[in-house]
Structure formats: C-alpha cells, structure tokens
C-alpha cells in the first residue's frame, strides 16, 4: 500500500501490541492515531473489522479505513474477526489535541441567526450533504494520498471553537485557506464528484468528492465550479475557483475531509509523516 503524500509533521502514535495478537491479525497502519486523524489499515483479506459501533468495510486486498473525531477518547479498540472465524480485540491509543478559540466578527446577522424562511433551505442543504456522507463505496481512491487544494494563507483551522459575531457556535470542521478570488481550486485526491451545488445557504458554491470507504472531501465558498456531478477527477485536477459565496467575510476556500459524518483534520492528512507499522 503506497500513499504519495504522508510527508513529515507528526509521528504515528501506536500502542504496544501483544506478540500473540500481532502475529494473528497481521495488521499494518499508515496515518495518525490522534484526534482528527485518518488511518489506513491493512489486514488479512476476508477479515471482518468493527470500530466502535461501525462495521468497517474491508477491500478485497484487506485495506480498510479508520478515523478519530475531534473529541475521540484516548483509549480505543478495534475488533477483528479473522477469516478462520477467530475474534481478536486490538487495543488502540489516540493522542489528544488542544484546540484554540476563533472569533469571527462582521458576518451578516442572517448568516449567524437564520430567519425562519431560511431554515427550510438549510435543512434541504443538509439532506444533500448527508446523503454523500452516507456513501460507503468500494472505491479505494484515498490510497492516492491527499494534496493541498489551493495555495494561500491558513485563516481557519480544524477543531477550533468558533465565536461568530460574539455568539458561540459549533467547532470548525475543516480548514480555511485565504486566497484571491479566482485562484484555482484542485481536487485533493482521486475520486468521483458526488455533489455540485451552486448556492447553499451557508457554503455557497459547493463540491463534494467521494474517495471511497466513507472518505469524502468538500470544497465550499467557491466563485466558480467547473466539474459536473458524477464526473471522475484525478488528484490535482481543477474543480473550480476561490470565491466568497455563502457565509464568509472574504475570499477563501473552506476545505474539509470526512469519514462518513465525522470531520477530520485536513492538515494531518496532507502533512502527516508516512510510517507503516507492521505487526506481523
């Protein structure tokens, strides 16, 4: 298994594994066992894996994906049923993060506290987004790795508590990259475009790409979209341009990566240190 971009900010943090368990499961991992981290694993083909209450898809070659949310607990585990029917509990340890508070003022009042007439539109937007985040396709495009979608100044980071016009809101679930309007926006990895929307209430012009196994990326506030729903893109293909549509005070790209409904930290995924830890 080869990822092109897991280059060097944070070391993979793996717990120590008992010899008997590691020999049985033949597990290997790439990624970050940290809040907001994405991990790609390899196991024996035909194994069944459960993480929490989720049955994890395992490819024909034994590839699977794990993710750890913003507030994931330090102690975790993975349940593995081997092809011979034997069950093994794999302990995991997740590094914790410290999050900052971000204050954004000057937003239109209606974009912070929507009117009743806006709520139906917001609900419809959320249904469309939710359908994409339910996908569990057999694609393994995430194995291409991830690159930055645009060059610019980081103006918002994952996990920060947001104070909008003085009112506390949900933590930021992606990364904001400030750049001049019209700057090209690129697909961060191979995949299939599953959503194109020209005018969502909060996110404006929006594109979502499916990379397989529940991994999706989202690109919002764009000025122009140049891909169509259902089209296949390769890493580095232009999908649109930076804009300031939706809820924003200036031109930037909000970029997010999810595992199903779970937001992940994009900076870990593009700037992580590639390390393969085998336990066989």
Provide a short characterization of the protein structure.
The chain has about 280 residues and is mostly beta strands. It is about 10% helix and about 40% strand.
Topology overview:
Layout lengths: L18 H7 L2 E4 L6 E5 L5 E4 L2 E3 L6 E5 L7 E7 L5 E7 L7 E4 L4 H4 L3 H17 L20 E4 L4 E4 L2 E3 L5 E4 L5 E3 L4 E10 L3 E9 L2 E8 L1 E2 L6 E2 L4 E4 L10 E8 L2 E3 L1 H6 L5 E2 L2
Parallel strand pairs: 8-10
Antiparallel strand pairs: 1-2, 1-22, 2-5, 3-4, 3-6, 6-7, 9-12, 10-11, 12-20, 13-19, 14-15, 14-18, 15-16, 16-20, 17-19, 20-21
Number of strands: 22
Distance between the termini: 15 Å
Q: Strand-and-helix sequence, N→C?
A: HEEEEEEEEHHEEEEEEEEEEEEEHE
CATH superfamily of the largest domain: Glucose Permease (Domain IIA)
Global structural class: mainly beta
Q: What is the CATH class of the largest domain?
A: Mainly Beta
Query: Which range does the strand content fall in?
Result: 35-45%
**Total of DSSP H or I helical runs spanning 4+ residues:** 4
Mean pLDDT: 85
In the CATH hierarchy, the architecture of the largest domain is: Distorted Sandwich
């Amino acid at each position: 298994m080869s990822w092109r971009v897991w280059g060097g900010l944070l070391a993979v943090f793996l717990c120590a594994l008992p010899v008997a368990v590691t020999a049985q499961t033949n597990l290997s991992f790439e990624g970050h066992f940290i809040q907001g981290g994405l991990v790609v694993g390899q196991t024996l083909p035909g194994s069944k894996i459960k993480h929490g209450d989720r049955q994890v898809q395992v490819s024909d070659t034994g590839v699977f994906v794990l993710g750890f949310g913003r507030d994931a607990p330090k102690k975790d585990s993975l349940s593995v049923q081997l092809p011979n029917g034997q069950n093994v509990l794999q302990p995991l340890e997740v590094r914790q993060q410290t999050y900052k508070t971000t204050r954004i003022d000057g937003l239109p009042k209606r974009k912070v506290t929507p009117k009743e007439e806006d709520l139906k539109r917001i609900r419809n937007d959320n249904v469309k987004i939710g359908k994409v985040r339910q996908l569990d396709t057999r694609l393994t495009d995430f194995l291409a790795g991830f690159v930055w979608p645009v060059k610019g100044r980081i103006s918002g980071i994952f996990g920060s508590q947001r104070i909008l016009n003085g009112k506390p809101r949900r933590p930021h679930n992606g990364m904001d990259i400030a750049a001049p309007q019209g700057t090209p926006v690129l697909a961060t990895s191979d995949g299939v475009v599953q959503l194109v929307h020209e005018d969502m209430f909060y996110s404006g012009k929006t594109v979502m790409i499916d990379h397989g196994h529940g991994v999706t990326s989202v690109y919002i506030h764009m000025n122009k979209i140049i891909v169509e729903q259902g089209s296949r893109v390769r890493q580095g293909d232009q999908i649109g341009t930076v804009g300031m549509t939706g809820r924003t005070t200036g031109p930037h790209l909000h970029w997010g990566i999810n595992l199903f409904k779970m937001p992940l930290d994009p900076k870990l995924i593009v700037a992580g240190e590639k390390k393969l830890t085998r336990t066989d």
